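YM 10:42: 2,3-dihydroxybiphenyl 1,2-dioxygenase sequence, as discussed on the call
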Amino acid sequence: MSISRLGALSVDVADLPAWQHLLVDLLGLQTQPRANENDPLLIRIDDHRYRIALHPAAEDRIRAITWEVDSPEELRTLADRVRAEGIDVEWAPEADPESRNAVASFRFLDADGFPNEICFGPTIDHEPLRPGGVISGFVTGELGLGHVVLMCRKYPEAVDFYTRVLGFELSDYIVWDGADATFLHCNPRHHSLALMNECFDFNGGDFNHLMIEVASLDDVGRAYDRINAAGIDLKMTFGRHTNDGVTSFYLSTPSGFGIEVGYGGDLVEDGWVVKTYRSPSRWGHEPQKAGRQ
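YM 10:58: structure's back
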């Protein structure tokens, strides 16, 4: 019994227009209709009702990291495991079938305060996505949304929790310049979750970045050109990772954390060998300071 994939990311945002400019105007992502200005802006990239939910708020914070499981039994088992760790579990109230985002779900805060949500039966939207835009498509499906990277105060304990309790499996490690990162998978995607120690001015509880994988290298290049032309701050320049082979860049969001736009991730298959790398990138990925806008 384990997590099956990353389902969605929900964020409280103080500057919704800036987010809309970034994701919709610049990257061409599609949104669900909003009934009023207090409703979240729901971003679609595939057949899910949404993959990114942006909630208008006074302050920026991660609202929920949503994980999916494939059966009600797995959902109940994981809830029991989390509760056995002395962590409070909050089940979502039953909602009208027309308005709910999943058949069932529960939430909890991990030791670093990250708000995790685990759900079964996410809502699917069978209206086709509009063609066109900067990005031709995304790699999702059974691999899920992409991956998230979380900074941890008690890094070894965090790795233990996500592997022993939630069932993530080890992919590999990267250790460099005082940073220590563990990469974990829950399906063939190289990693859906990476956990890191406190380093590079990040503290435990900081959300580092969300990665979304696009359908072609040209998608990465077009997005990179569009982001640079618009003067959006980069977290890291164009480059290629050592461990998962992804070619990507990192942009800075209006909420401060990064989004990695990448292509060409390796899959964890039979015979996979765990390795430790001494650099996160084969080339590129030069860190950038904010303030270009």
